Here is the input.
Amino acid sequence: MYRLIFAFSFLMCLGAVAQVAPKREFRAVWVATVNNIDWPSKPGLSTDQQKKEVIDLLEMHRKNGMNAIIMQIRPASDAFYPSELEPWSRYLTGTPGKAPSPFYDPLQFWIQECHNRNMEFHAWLNPFRVSQNAADPLAANHIAFKNPEWIVNYGGKLYFDPGIPQTRDFVVKVVTDIVSRYDVDAIHFDDYFYPYPLKESFPDENSFSQYNRGFLSAQKADWRRDNVDLTIRMLSESIKKTKPWVKFGISPFGVWRNKTDDPQGSETTAGTTNYDHLYADILKWQKIGWIDYSLPQLYWQIGHPSVDYLTLAKWWADHSYNRAMYIGHAVYKLEANASVPEWKDPNQLIKQIEITRQIPQIGGSAFYSSVHFKRDLFGFTQTIQDKIYKHQALIPPMPWIDNKAPQSPERFRKKGHKLKWKTDKTEKELDKPVKYIVYLNAAGEKFDAQNPKNIFTITSDKSIVFKPNSRKLRRKYEIRISALDRLHNESEISKVKVIKL
Here is the structure.
């Protein structure tokens, strides 16, 4: 009863407050490649067709106000990029191990096109999945043929056994290779560590007998969690050693543990939890600082009797441990014939976004998945374009990685309708300006740097040309410039220049 009263009171307060879009907010979309869910639309498309789909997809999400893409580059021990460790993905060409023709590097293309649109690129990998169907052929050069003892069949799917040290080392090697060769902004894992449980037990008896590290038979669940802990710790250390600025994020299942099983757990009655069934103790990773952000998948409606959205949003916010916390939303559930009434209403997602904005520890949202933005969402897309995400937002910084702002642009000059500026060179990667914010407001109006409507554009160039108004009556505007580094720390804002447009 208390929970229902609290939720009602919270939503009433929410409705009474005029929401102002924040200047900083993570706004992401998942792009799934497994089974060709989002991209490419089908295997075997030509290189030009694949590239066109990328451009169309990114332009759609740019228009929707997104500033990050979470793209699945390794759905099942395969690759959407040239790799000496794993074969080309079947979902790209239709044949495992076959490169695109004419040849191009899809991962490099995605990264470049995202960065051209001021979007971060988060490389999404599945750590232990080998094949969605054990009967499907693997590429001849797949690591499974060289090390068949690493592989187990569970429910007709193939997995690496996380209990074998060499499989954990291999996952780290794959991720390190990606981070070292590509300008990714983050490495991202979803909820799949150990697979969701079936009636039969996961077949890791052999690895437990060989590599139990002193865990007893009654402690097998703890041993499995420790296997995942070891993987996360090694990945964190390797990523930061290779490129300290690359973020490491996890998108867990929406419930860590139920309160009936753990005093720290949420007021929920979920049948599956991260800790007990997927052997993923994400709270531990956050507390220790192995990861930079959590993005729990809260794919339930406000008021759900077992896993209420509002209850879980507040619970995750209370367990962020000074790391970034974002929320995953189920845009795929919006359906005209949905069995749950709330998912027939586009305001369900709008309310969820507004709730996250009222909770200080939550820094933004992500949506699963991209393909659903192509269909009729009953006005949801139009609402985010016109209201919720009308103004572009900067991604929140991560001060535990770096909190030093870059140098402010110098020698800021105006000649006619062209402005240009310079910045001092620096050899330190974390201090380099990579983007510039151009602020614009009507002369005489009070300038507010925190109001996103004053952001005219964000550019990687060091100059900008304004197009004058074609009307005879022109107005004076104030222009200011600031610099951003690759972790979105903002410099001091320049002195003002006045231009007539």
